[in-house]
Amino acid sequence: MTELTFFHGLLIAWFCLAAVISPILFLIPAPYGRHARSGWGPVVQDHLGWMIMEAPAVFVFAICFALGEYRETLASFSFLGMWEAHYLHRAFLYPLGLKRRGRRMPVFVVAAGFLFNVVNGYLNGRFLFTLSGGYPSEWLWGWQFLAGLGLFAVGFLLNRQADQVLLNLRKSGRSGYQIPQGGFYRWISCPNYLGEIIEWIGWAMATWSLPGLSFAVWTAANLVPRAQIHHTWYRRHFPDYPPKRKALMPGLW
Known about the structure:
By secondary structure, the protein is mainly α. The protein is 65% helix and 2% strand. It is built from seven helices and two strands; from the N terminus they run αβααβαααα.
């Protein structure tokens, strides 16, 4: 079996798995964060779990770049910069804000996230830097890349701003969960998730690739159900929760 045959088979399976997993997540929320519960086996500290499961995205993608046949174009460096800007923060900076919380995450969740990031990093990195045949530097001036980069930047900033609101709540000295306020929290319960979905839709456009699309599909498959479950949880636990606030899409849902 050639690598190209393996790659295409894995990519098709990856799309199919996302379609299977998403409905399940509406019924069985992943057991971490506010939805943590017993019965899922051994646990680790949540900040350590985040580092372990997100780090493969940093390193697998970088290895694909280092071994790539088409890594020396400006477009390749741009893709590398976009990807690592997200994942260096997610794998190493974001968990530092969780370090003092003392919460736990099941090893099962960490292992699933680790596997996802290995496969996702391989599919995107290997395609971009080798199997695609290369992106010329002129790609950076095409509408796909410019529109995608714009969406990626908007999603990146929205995600960071929303995460910072949550981190500030945790640093306020008050125990337990609180209702986040400000920013896009005026209109939706999960602007951090909306930002990440926008970010990877932008990535799919900027790369104009099936692996990029698979990442956007997986992001929505994971975060749309979790946003709905978060929204329901807020309404159940806070009688004064803003009645007009939606789950993920301002004014709609």
